[in-house]
Amino acid sequence: MKTLVFIETDSGVAVGSSWEALGKALSLGGEVEALVIGHAVEAVAAEAGARGATKVYRIDDPSRALFDLELYTEDVKAVLAETNADALLASHTGNGRDLAAAVGFDLGVGVIADCLELKAEDGKLVGTRPIYSGNILVDVRVDGRPQIATLRPRAAAPAPVTGATAPIVDVAPAAAKARVQVQAVERAETGEISLTDASIIVSGGRGVAKDPDLGFKLIRELAQVLGAAVGASRAAVDAGFIPYKYQVGQTGKVVRPDLYIACGISGAVQHLAGMGSSKVIVAINKDAEAPIFSVANYGIVGDLFEIVPALTRAAKAKLNR
Ligand SMILES: Cc1cc2nc3c(=O)[nH]c(=O)nc-3n(C[C@H](O)[C@H](O)[C@H](O)COP(=O)(O)OP(=O)(O)OC[C@H]3O[C@@H](n4cnc5c(N)ncnc54)[C@H](O)[C@@H]3O)c2cc1C
Fold first, then answer.
1. What's the CA-to-centroid distance between 233 and ligand 1, angstroms?
2. Are residues 29 and 79 in the same domain?
3. Which among 294, 258, 256, 290 has a CA at the least distance from the CA of 273?
């Protein structure tokens, strides 16, 4: 099976989760090639080779500096025709999901979107994805060729840099003009560390219920000292303690930080689905029998309202902040 992986770029830099799509494609076996579209993306194309793609197609043009669905769709279709790939894989970012759907529509093939897992069976992609608001996980195959799938960010490890090199094939842009022109992109400045990019996350659950405002204030203080992002369980979100964008889990964000500190979170399977691959898990819970302790590397049995500020004080002293 030959897989073409779309490497998304932003201002000449690869979108991190594209390397996860590449990593997943490599784990499927077979031949893996990459397609980099953007402007001034020479380094990204070289990195795709260093991370294991055997050939890299590059469309490097000022007209591709900003993601433009119409232009990118034509580019991807042209490269798919040239490589004769059996499968196209992209990260399930906003742009990745748009692109996969548009390419699938034009080619008349199905798309397995938002996969949490992907495998190859008899030369066919099988994607595991949530349906019915995450109540059920289903295995999906699609008819037609190429098979197209998108992989949820953080659902796989990025392809490691091996130092390999791959031939880079420059391809001319397939179309010059689109009906809609993207003129600029304005970024929302939240000043917060993004949950999906964070290497440390401090999360709060229903355990803050006796004083949610204070609970999340303490969690935010610890996060700030550690340079961490703040996360939450669905129970905390459903109770209105914190907005949905902070939710970690099966129906929230999938995260893979180096350190995940769960405060007052019981460890339901749907929460673990979003953070179980964290490198080190620390759980703070007043119930020694809470299931979170069975996945935690370090457990603290006690009241988060006492332990979180104590950790913040200790971290401040240790890190000199
Ligand atoms: C289809 C579906 C999808 C779902 N998706 C998600 C999802 O994406 N993310 C998610 O998180 N959940 C999800 N859930 C919900 C999940 O099943 C749990 O209900 C939820 O994770 C529980 O959140 P919690 O651990 O904060 O609350 P609880 O299970 O109520 O746990 C609270 C914990 O806090 C501890 N505690 C209480 N007070 C303190 C204190 N003062 N100090 C320390 N510890 C204290 C308690 O001992 C308890 O262990 C989903 C459920 C369904 C059915």
1. 6
2. yes
3. 256
Amino acid at 64: R
Q: Has residue 109 been placed in a domain?
A: yes
207 CA → ligand 1 middle, Å = 8
Pairing of strands 229-232, 200-204: parallel
The rounded distance, in Å, linking the Cα atoms of 161 and 231 is 29
Cα-to-centroid distance, 229 and ligand 1 (Å) = 19
Ligand 1 site, residue 203, Cβ cutoff 6 A: no
Domain encompassing residue 289: 200-319
Atom of ligand 1 nearest to the CA of 233: 11
Copy the structure tokens of residue 67.
Answer: 């993601």
Predicted confidence (pLDDT) per residue in 72-123, tens digit? 999 999 999 999 999 999 999 999 999 999 999 999 999 999 999 999 998 8
Find out whether 124 and 141 touch, Cβ atoms under 8 Å. yes
The DSSP call for residue 253 is: B
pTM: 0.73
Q: What is the pLDDT of residues 113-168, one digit of tens each?
A: 999 999 999 889 999 998 876 678 899 999 899 999 999 988 899 999 998 999 99
Closest CA to 275 of 290, 265, 289: 265
Same domain as 128, residue 20: yes
- Residue 146: cis peptide before it, omega within 30 degrees of 0: yes
